[in-house]
């Protein structure tokens, strides 16, 4: 329940810049990328006893390439944490990073841990192709699956019962079912770009972003995906490649991106012991399932479930970070919750349509941005929520301290 002094506290949070697919971060190994924000946290707080970290919990959606051997543990070692610090990687697809935050808070609230590093990583540029094993000996057939995003190695029963719509196809399904017009989607996408541009001009991301410095490449200090010159006319001219006569375009959808994020989450006792300053309390999290073909609506039931559990109403929430997988699904969620399309307190600094969506990182990025924005506004409650492939939603609530 809200209030009180005990709990799990976000004390600091940092992220790398977000790179475009095949862009500035494409040459950085996923495990190396994951280590960067952890090392930055350690450098920011040299007086903390980093050997006291109980666990490193990282979200990652792919885990088929350089992230395949428990990337949380590899990142901890590469960042320079003592070998005694454990690590675990969790996968709730697009919400993996937020799931990591939720699991860290639960461990602290139950007394099983006092200090945890939570976050997430995804290098979609470096996601490998995989070759499944043959169905029979001496087979002359070979298939190649792209692990960047979406379905692969599909179960025929899953296809028959639920369909295996691609992510853009689910966005088209949501647009059709919830009657989200193309013009409204483009208007939302344009607003996201404008809000990111304004936030960057005001320096609102400075505290949360740490540069990526890697041998053989120029330092990357700024998000690469935003397009500040986006206009409604340019968005309206884009094709709808996912469905004939559809409404989902590359301009009103999130990008395919690279990035990593990490935060320290601590008990009240650990904050005092390690000289950490609590910024926000994790109040709780809730997940909900929806039909896979309209996975984008998932944040709505997850939000209702969480708020009911916390005894809060939507009107109590001062700030909402709602992941922009697609403009169609964001608008469907907002309307389902009774919020206006252009609500000022929803993604006030823009979202994934402009910033990009490195799958395993994004949920942690939402919680990071929300933590800083709560402080900037002097507000009390924030909600972070995402839709999830295969039909889920996850929501997490924060309270400024």
CA-to-CA gap between the ends?
15 Å
Would you give the CATH topology of the domain at 8-127 and 254-400?
Peroxisomal Thiolase, Chain A, domain 1
Give the proportion of residues in helices. Answer: 25-40%
- What structural class should be given to the helix and strand makeup? alpha+beta
Tell me the name of the CATH class of the domain at 8-127 and 254-400.
Alpha Beta
Q: Specify the overall morphology.
A: globular
Q: C-alpha Rg, in Å?
A: 20 Å
Q: Which stretches are low in confidence, meaning pLDDT under 50 for 5 or more residues running? A: none
Give the strand tally.
Answer: 12
- The average pLDDT is 97
Task: Give a quick rundown of the structure.
The chain is of the alpha+beta class. It has helices spanning 30-44, 71-79, 96-109, 156-162, 167-177, 182-201, 232-236, 268-274, 299-310, 327-336, 352-355, 359-377; strands at residues 8-15, 19-20, 55-59, 87-90, 115-123, 129-130, 145-146, 257-266, 280-289, 319-322, 381-388, 392-400. The longest helix has 20 residues, at 182-201.
Textual characterization of the structure:
The protein is α+β, with helices and mostly antiparallel strands. The chain has a domain at 8-127 and 254-400: Thiolase/Chalcone synthase (Peroxisomal Thiolase, Chain A, domain 1, 3-Layer(aba) Sandwich), CATH 3.40.47.10. It is 33% helix and 18% strand. It contains twelve helices and twelve strands. It has helices spanning 30-44, 71-79, 96-109, 156-162, 167-177, 182-201, 232-236, 268-274, 299-310, 327-336, 352-355, 359-377, and strands spanning 8-15, 19-20, 55-59, 87-90, 115-123, 129-130, 145-146, 257-266, 280-289, 319-322, 381-388, 392-400. The strands form two sheets. Strands 1, 2, 3, 4, 5, 8, 9, 10, 11 and 12 form a ten-stranded mixed beta sheet that branches. Helix 1 (30-44) crosses helix 2 (71-79). It is globular. The protein starts with 7 loop residues before the first strand and ends with a strand.
């Amino acid at each position: 329940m809200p209030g009180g002094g005990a709990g799990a506290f976000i004390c600091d949070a940092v992220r790398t810049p977000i790179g475009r697919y095949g862009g500035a971060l494409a040459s950085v190994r996923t495990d190396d990328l994951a280590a960067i924000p952890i090392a930055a946290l350690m450098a920011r707080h040299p007086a903390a006893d980093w050997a006291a970290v109980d666990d490193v919990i990282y979200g990652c959606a792919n885990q088929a390439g350089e992230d395949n051997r428990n990337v949380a543990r590899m990142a901890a070692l590469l960042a320079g944490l003592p070998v005694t610090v454990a690590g675990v990687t969790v996968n709730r697809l697009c919400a993996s990073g937020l799931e990591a935050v939720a699991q860290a808070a639960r461990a602290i609230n139950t007394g099983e841990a006092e200090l945890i590093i939570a976050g997430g990583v995804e290098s979609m540029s470096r996601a490998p192709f995989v070759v499944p094993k043959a169905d029979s000996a001496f087979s002359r057939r070979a298939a190649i699956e792209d692990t960047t995003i979406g379905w692969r190695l599909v179960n025929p029963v899953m296809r028959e019962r639920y369909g295996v719509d691609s992510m853009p196809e689910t966005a088209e399904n949501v647009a059709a079912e919830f009657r989200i017009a193309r013009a409204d989607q483009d208007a939302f996408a344009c607003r996201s770009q404008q809000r990111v541009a304004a936030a960057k001009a005001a320096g609102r991301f400075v505290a949360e972003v740490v540069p990526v410095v890697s041998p053989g490449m120029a330092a990357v200090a700024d998000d690469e995906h935003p397009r500040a010159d986006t206009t409604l006319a340019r968005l309206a001219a884009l094709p709808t490649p996912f469905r004939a006569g559809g409404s989902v375009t590359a301009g009103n959808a999130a990008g395919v991106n690279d990035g990593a994020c990490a935060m320290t989450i601590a008990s009240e006792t650990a904050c005092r012991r390690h000289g950490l300053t609590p910024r926000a309390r994790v109040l709780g999290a809730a997940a909900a399932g929806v039909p896979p073909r309209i996975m984008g609506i998932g944040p709505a039931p997850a939000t209702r479930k969480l708020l009911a559990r916390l005894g809060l109403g939507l009107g109590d929430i001062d700030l909402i970070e709602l992941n922009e997988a697609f403009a169609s699904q964001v608008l469907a969620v907002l309307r389902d919750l009774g919020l206006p399309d252009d609500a000022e307190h929803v993604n006030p600094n823009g979202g994934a349509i402009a910033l990009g969506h490195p799958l395993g990182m994004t949920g942690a990025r939402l919680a990071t941005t929300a933590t800083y924005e709560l402080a900037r506004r002097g507000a009390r409650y924030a909600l972070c929520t995402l839709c999830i492939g295969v039909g889920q939603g996850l929501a997490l609530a924060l309270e400024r301290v």
